[in-house]
Amino acid sequence: MSRWQTLRTSPWWKRLTNKYTLVTLFFVIWMAFLDSSSALIQWELDARLRALEDGIDFYQRELEETQRQLDELASDPDKLEKFARETYWMHKPGLLLQDVRLDIAPVHLVFGGVLEDLVAQMDALPASLHPECLHGSLNLDPAEHFLRTGGFWRGGLEADLTQVQSALSLPSGLRVLCGNGADMAAPGHPQASVQQLAYGLGSLMAQLDHIGWEHADRSWLNLAASDDYLQTIALVQAARSLWETATQKHLQRSAPLWISGRPHLPAHTEDASALIGIGMQQQALWLGGCDELWITPLNNSPQAVDWARQQVLVLTYENGLQGLDQPLAGSYTLDGYTVQLQQEVEKLWKHWSDQGGFWAHLQSLTSA
Questions:
Q1: For residue 118, what are the CA distances in angstroms to 122, 125, 152, 171, 317?
Q2: What is the Cα 27 distance to its own chain's centre?
Q3: Which one of 58, 118, 196, 216 has the largest count of C-beta atoms within 10 Å of its C-beta?
Q4: Region 23-27: what's the mean pLDDT?
C-alpha cells in the first residue's frame, strides 16, 4: 500500500477532511485575515489608536506649555519685547534706526500694532543720524494685506482706510499710502507686470479716492523686476505715466510718486554668478526710473551683503542718472512696450470698474 493510501485511511485524515472541520478552518482563516473586521485589522487599528492617544497626550502637554508661555509674555512686557525681537526680528523704531543716516537711507516700516504707539516711538529717532531727513514708507496697504491673508488689518475696509488717514499725522517723510505691486503678482506669471501695476497703483488710487487726492504726495509704490530687461524698464515707465495721468485728472497737476524697485531672487544661493542676473534686473529698474533699489544679497553671509551694497551703490549713486524720472523716455522700442502695458492696465481697471470698483473686485477674489 502506498504512503498516500496509508495517509487517506488514517483516522486523523478523516477528522481533518471532515466537512465540519473544513468549514471551521475556513471560518477561522476568514475572521483572522480576510474579513473587514479581521484580527489583523483589529490589531492595526489598536496600534493606530494607541499612537493617536499618545499624540493627544503630547499635544495636550504642548498646549499647556504654550499657554504658560503666553501667560508669561502677557504679564511681562520685557519678555514680550525680547520674544518679538529674537523670534520675529521686531524692533522699536528708535533701536532699528540707531546710527542710520536717514538723509541717505529710506526706511520702510511694517507695523501691526496700535498706530498711536508708533507715533510715540518716533520720539526716539534722535538716536539716528539726521532724523529731520527721515523718509521712506509705512506699509499699511489694505489691498496687499487682504490678498495675502484674506482679511483686513483692522477687521474691515473702513477701519483700514481710517488707519491710513490717521497715519498722515506721522512725519511727512513717511509715505503712508502704499501700493505693494510687487507682492500682489505671481512671479513668472505672463501678466505679472500688468498685475503689479493694476493692483499696486489701483490700491493707491482707491485709497486716495477715500482719503483725498490732496495727499497724493505721500504715496509709495513697490515694483519687482523680471528677467525680461526691456519689460522691466517699461514696467517702471508705465507706472510713471499712469500716475501722471491720474494726478492730472484729479489735481490738475503732477504729484511725486516714490517707486522702490527690487530684483527677483527666488531663493538664497551660493552661486556668485547670480549677481549678474540681479545686477541686470537692478539696472533695468533704475533705467526705468525707480527712486531706490532694494539691496538684495545672494545669501546671509557678510560677503554677499557687502557685494549687494556695493552693487547698488555703483548702479544708483555713481552713474549720473539719479533724479531722472524716466532716463530712457523717448526710445521708440521702449515706448511701445510702455504704451502696451498702460493699455492693458487701463483695460483691466475698466473691467473692475464695471464690477463695482477696485475694492469690490478685491473682495470678490476671496468669495469666489
A1: 6, 11, 19, 11, 31
A2: 61
A3: 196
A4: 69
